[in-house]
Amino acid sequence: MIFYIYNMFIVPASILLPIVWGSIKYRSLDKSLKIILLFNVFTGTLNFINHILATHRISNLFVFHFYAIFEFAIISWFYNVQFKGVVNKIIPPLVVTFGTLCLINFFFIQNNIKLELNTYTRSLESIFIIGYSVMYFNQQSQTDNEHKWVDLSLNWVNSAFLIFYSCSFFTFMATNYFVRPDTTFTQNVIWGIYDTALLAENILFAIAFYKCRQQPIISSY
């Protein structure tokens, strides 16, 4: 019962934290943080739709399949603003390629008929986003500025993505190989960890909006 309340109500409701703070400080947000606010609104909307479908016992797996396409596109848009040069040019075709793979996976591999979650493409997505995060931190480490690390909103955003998608990769890989219909306890542990990472991500986004200020210019690739 406790896990059900945590999973179905507490964690989904946590998306309101960044949405509320982002809305309050909207006029102070730069382009990057406005993209993150859009991402949170999009995520909150899809979570609400999923909740309604689940409540009415309607299959919502197709939502997860198509959600991944737009999720990756918005996050890639955010990082595309941060990077320049070669990385900046690679991101758009990477988004198109990933979207194509998601459609192939939905129609021919982990389709709605098999009632399978899109664990293959979500695992791949996690790898890409972890790569974005590591490159961003590497870019930051090569840049000297007068601001403290904790005072930069985008550092909190990047940390949120790195933590959540590292956990997400573990979750979907574990789901592929270790979770079976009769392993309820294992499922609860794995998805409990995932939900906690999602909660942490939303809190970090809220902190990013709370700390938002004019960001210093950071040299990029």
Distance between the termini: 49 Å
Counting DSSP E segments of at least 2 residues, the number of strands comes to 0
Order of helices and strands: HHHHHHHH
Low-confidence stretches: 214-221
Q: What's the main sheet like?
A: none
| Dominant shape | globular
Tell me the number of helical segments per DSSP (H or I, 4 or more residues long).
8
Radius of gyration: 18 Å
Class from helix and strand fractions? mainly alpha
Q: Estimate percent helicity.
A: over 70%
State which percent range the strand residues make up: under 5%
**What is the mean pLDDT?**
88
Could you characterize the architecture of this molecule?
There is one protein chain. With 221 residues, the chain is mainly α. The chain has helices spanning 2-13, 16-24, 31-55, 61-82, 85-109, 119-141, 153-177, 184-210.
Question: Briefly, what is this?
Answer:
With 221 residues, this protein is mainly α.
Provide tags for this entry.
221 residues, mainly alpha, 8 helices, globular
Write the layout of secondary structure elements.
Layout: H1 2-13, H2 16-24, H3 31-55, H4 61-82, H5 85-109, H6 119-141, H7 153-177, H8 184-210
Helix pairs in contact: 1-8, 2-3, 2-8, 3-4, 4-5, 4-6, 6-7, 7-8
